[in-house]
Structure formats: structure tokens, C-alpha cells
Amino acid sequence: MGLNPGLAGVNGGDFRVSTIYRTQWAQVMTPFTTMGISADVATQKNINFGINLLNQTAGNAGYHYQHGYLTIGYGGVRFGEDDNQQISFGIQVGALARKFDPSGFQFGDQWNSISGYDPSVSSADLLPRTSSSDLDIGAGVAYSDARENRPWRLFGGFSAFHLNRPQDPFVTRSVSQQIPMRFSVHGGVQINLNERIQLTPQFLLMKQGTALEQMLGMSVRMPASASADLLAGINYRINDALAPYLAVGYGQWLFGFSYDVAAGELGKQVPGTSSFELSLTYTGLPSGRPIRYLSCPRL
Description:
Blueprint: E1 15-24, E2 32-41, E3 47-58, E4 63-79, E5 85-99, E6 111-112, E7 116-117, E8 131-145, E9 152-161, E10 182-192, E11 198-208, E12 211-223, E13 228-237, E14 241-250, E15 253-262, H1 265-269, E16 275-284
């Protein structure tokens, strides 16, 4: 749902719960960390629900970025063979909160040519506002294909976040600054090489203001044993990083690990800016209720 609210309830079961932990740049500074949890549920009425919570901390100044969203989705647009193709919609409403601790900052007028940084000197730079919370709205649409016995199946979607343009109060004092909307386009194709092995090339494009992220990836899914699956792949964020990842599925559980290897200018200038990420997902199996389940593509 952080990628596309339209994926709420597209989980292959009655419900899904996911957690994530990510740490970045621990080798060179106080690490940037991300922790999150989400849950979504499919209903018999094609109305799906979700919730996702996220907490991020960045650097020595204790910057915190937090959000909590409720998502409602509609998955009743079905067509094709046995209605196994679906277009789903979702809207996400919640709160966006940010804060920082100015005592962790070092300002230019606290430095001198004799002793360097002097924390006993008070800075003339005033930071009257150190926290903010705002309403935040996002929406998305997704397409998924659950037709069986096909050599390939497409999936994809489009989403937009910060539709109401929340305020960014820390940028400037004199002008009211709004957070730019963030747009995402994602998609790929699931290719069945045989009855046991599935190959999935995929892409992700995100744009927010002048920032642009482009990612290409490939993954393979295969059985590791009679009761476990293995998912392995690699993503390349263009001019930024290579991100190999590995996941093991056992029953209703999926445990994943990925490691980013900096490949852009930042990695060349500052060695040790890699990061790793852990995830754990539990999907409640179908309970026999008359719901047409569509599996969520692994992105």
C-alpha cells in the first residue's frame, strides 16, 4: 500500500500482515532507520481495507518522519476468462508527522578557527518550529491477472500521493512551502518457465518534484522443498544502487532480506553507504468464503 493503495486486499487470501525494518549508512554515521507494519483484508463485497504505519529516523539530529494511513479499496471491476482479471482502486487517508531535535545541529557560527566546533556558543539561526503534522491523501489504481495455465501474466499500476499538498514547514520561514505530489508507475510480467519456476521482470518509476527514481529488476521463484519456496532477484536503481534480495516462503509465511550496494556518485565519494532490509509477511489462507482471490505480484 505504500507503493499503490490500489493493491489493498490484493493478497491471495483473507488478509495479510507485513513488517519491515531497514537501516542505511551505519558504517559512516548515525544510521537512518525505517520500521513499518501494514495489514490489509479482502471482503466478500469487493470492498477491501488496509492500514499502514511507518516510522523513519535520520541522522544525528533525531529527525523523525512518521505516517499512519487507512486505505479503502474497491476490486469489483473484473473481466476476461472466469473474471480472473481485475482492476482495483484505492484511496488512502491519514496523518503525516515530522519533527527534529535542533540540539543535534552544528551551525556555522558555532565554529571558529582556533578550536573548531564550540557547542557552548549559541547560534543566531532561529528554528521556531521543530514539529509538524498534516492530513495526507493518496490514491491508486492497479491491474492484476490471475488466469491459470498461461505462459505469462501482466500486472501494473499507477498511484499518486500527497494529493492535498501538505505543508513543508521546515523549508523556509517567509514562504509557505507545500510537499510536491509523488507519482509512481509500476509493472511487470510473470513468466511461467515451467510448472515449477517463475521468472518476473519488473520496473518502478517514481517522481516527486525534481526528484526521479527509476528501477529495473528481475526475480525468479522456484520450489526449495516440498513445503518451501525460494524467491531471489536483483533490482537496479539507475545511477544509485544495486539491490539483490532473497526470500523464503514457508506455508503462509514469507521472510525476505535485501542489501543495497551503492553504485552512484554517493557510493564513489562516501564508501560504506550501503543498507540492508528485512521483511516478514503472513497471509491468511482462503477460509472457504465466496471471494475470488487474486495473488499480489512480488515487487
